[in-house]
Amino acid sequence: MAEQLKDLADDRALLGRTSTAERVSDILRSRIAEGYFPPGTRLSEDSIGGALGVSRNTLREAFRLLTHERLLVHELNRGVFVRVLTVEDVEDIYRTRRLVECAVVRGLGEPPYGLDGLAGAVEEGRRAAREGDWKGVGTANIHFHRELVALAASERTAELMRSVFAELRLAFHVVDEPQRLHEPYIARNVAILEALQAGDRGKAESLLAGYLDDSLERVVEVYRRRVGEDG
Amino acid sequence: MAEQLKDLADDRALLGRTSTAERVSDILRSRIAEGYFPPGTRLSEDSIGGALGVSRNTLREAFRLLTHERLLVHELNRGVFVRVLTVEDVEDIYRTRRLVECAVVRGLGEPPYGLDGLAGAVEEGRRAAREGDWKGVGTANIHFHRELVALAASERTAELMRSVFAELRLAFHVVDEPQRLHEPYIARNVAILEALQAGDRGKAESLLAGYLDDSLERVVEVYRRRVGEDG
DNA sequence: CCGTAGAGGATTGTTCAACGATCCCTCAAT
DNA sequence: ATTGAGGGATCGTTGAACAATCCTCTACGG
Question: Could you give the number of structural domains in chain B?
Answer without folding.
Answer: 2
